[in-house]
Design goal:
Number of strands: 5
Helix content: 40-55%
Largest sheet: 5 strands, parallel
Structural class: alpha/beta
Distance between the termini: 41 Å
Strand order of the largest sheet: 2-1-3-4-5
Strand content: 5-15%
Length: 220
């Protein structure tokens, strides 16, 4: 496999970081096309257009709408052929271990040098799992969050988008308008979301989603 004509998504809400990352990697991956997403919604929009055209996603766990590990879980469930690498300022072994546990193909600290970034991307694109030097993954008790993660993975991309909008506090009418569908369609999505997550209402659905946010998971 030659690493040529790649399409890579940088999903991070900080424009300066996206720009710096793109510039740092452009010399090593000269003919790569870079795509940017500043939120989970923007990332989903790119994937909706043509998911199969992308070769890699560099994912920040804490951009708007990501809800910690939930977007990583969603991506791995619906786009299993698309490698996702978490790139984060949280560099502790628990965060790294959880990212790998939930399907990340690697973990790149935001403090990494240009050479390290290049090494990590190359390794992942060749099918390997890349970890920072000296990191040994630890065993974690994920029994509670794994159950939630499994249920979350069953949601379709549209259902996941609706759940994210529930978490933002939007009303069915607002969601229907934003997505260009009827209120009845949103209600149908809500019913399916509640059934798949094993909850009874919006509040419980949002709580289930929030269980996978980084601060919630770290407290387990």
């Amino acid at each position: 496999m030659k690493l040529e004509n790649l399409n890579v998504i940088i999903a991070d809400d900080h424009p300066l970081f996206r720009n710096a990352l793109r510039q740092a990697l452009s010399s090593a991956f000269a003919d790569t096309r870079w795509f940017e997403a500043d939120s989970a919604e923007a990332l989903q929009t790119l994937l909706d257009q043509d998911a199969e055209s992308y070769d890699l996603v560099l994912l920040d766990l804490q951009m708007p709408g990501a809800h910690g590990y939930s977007t990583l879980i969603h991506l791995r469930a619906h786009y299993p052929e698309l490698p996702v690498v978490v790139i984060s300022a949280h560099e502790d072994v628990q965060t790294i271990s959880r990212a790998i546990h939930y399907g990340s193909a690697g973990f790149i600290p935001k403090s990494a040098s240009m050479d390290t970034l290049t090494e990590a991307m190359t390794s992942v694109l060749y099918g390997d799992i890349w970890l920072p030097e000296g990191i040994e993954l630890i065993a974690l008790d994920e029994s509670g969050t794994d159950q939630t993660a499994g249920k979350l993975a069953e949601l379709t991309p549209q259902q996941y988008k609706v759940l994210q909008m529930f978490a933002e506090g939007l009303l069915n009418k607002q969601i229907a308008y934003d997505l260009g569908v009827s209120e009845a369609t949103i209600k149908a999505h809500a019913t399916a979301i509640f059934r798949k997550l094993g909850v009874r209402n919006r509040t419980q659905a949002v709580i289930a989603l929030q269980q996978l946010e980084m601060d919630k998971v770290e407290l387990n």
